[in-house]
Write a structure and sequence with these properties.
The structure is a single chain. This protein is an alpha/beta fold. The protein is built from 6 helices and 15 strands. The strands form 2 sheets. Strands 6-5-4-3-2-1-14-15 form an 8-stranded mixed sheet. It has a 7-stranded mixed sheet with strand order 7-8-9-10-11-12-13, covered by helices on one side. Strand 2 and strand 3 form a beta hairpin. The protein is globular and about 50 Å long.
Amino acid sequence: MKITLWGTRGSLPSPGPETVRYGGNTSCVEVRSDDGTLLVLDAGTGIRRLGTSVEPDIRRIDILLTHLHMDHIQGFGFFHPLYRSDLDVHVYGPPSTTHDLRTRLTKYLSPPLFPVRLRDLPVKLSLHDVPLGAFNVNGLRVESALISHPGPTVGYRISDRSGTIVYLPDHEPALGAQAFPLAADWTSGAALARRADLLIHDTQYTQREYEQHVGWGHSAIEHTVAFATLTQVTHLLTFHHDPGHSDEMIDQMEQAVRRQRLPFALLSGREDAAFTIGSGSVRAA
C-alpha cells in the first residue's frame, strides 16, 4: 500500500509561513493498494488537492469518513471526481440513531451552505452507514469500531497483503483514566490498533494543553505515544495538528518524545508526505 497525506490539520489555521512544512489543509489521507484500488480517509479540505491528481481512467473511489465534524467533510463538495458521470463513488460514514448518512451529508451539500445539492451531483454516488466490524471495500479488508470522540465517530483498520494501517485522527483514549494507559481491553481503539504496521493518530496537544481540553476528543502527544506503546505498533505517524501550532511548535513536541526510548518508529505527519508499506516496513515514498 501507498499512503499520501493531503491534509493533516485539525481545522484551518491562519495562513502564513508557520504552516508551510506541516500544511494547512484539514484531514484527508489517500490509500492506494498494490492493485490500484483508491481509498480516501476523510474529506477535509485536503481532498480538493487529491481530486486534481486522480487519473481519468479511475472508475471507482471509496471514501471512509470517521465522523461528520466540519473539518472532516468541508472539502467534499470541492472533490473534482464527484462531477464525473463515468465514476462510481462509495461513501461510508458512522451510523446515527436519528438520521442516515445521506440525510446528514445533505445538510452540508445544499443551500445556503453549498450551491450544489448532493442529489444533483453527476457521479454515481452510493452512501453507506459503515458496519461496525470487518467488511470488504473493493478488495481491501476494513475493520471499524466506535472510538472516544464527541458524536458518532469510528476508527479504521485497513489491511491487504502488504500490511496494515490504522487511522484514528480524532481520538481521546485517555478520557476518564486515572492513569494512562489502561489495560488494552479498557482503552478506546486498542483492539483496532493492535500490532499495526502504521498508526495514524491524533497528536493535537501538549500535556499542559490537554489538561485544559479534557473531553474535547483529542490527545496529548504523550498519550498517543503511550497508546502506540500499549498497542505494539511498529510505526506511529503524528496527525491532526493543532491549527494554532507553528511548525516550530510541532517540531518541539516531536523532539521531546523522541528523547524517550520508543519501541516504535516515530514519523512526522506533514502534508504531501507519502509512505509505502510492505513486508512489515514503512518507507518514505
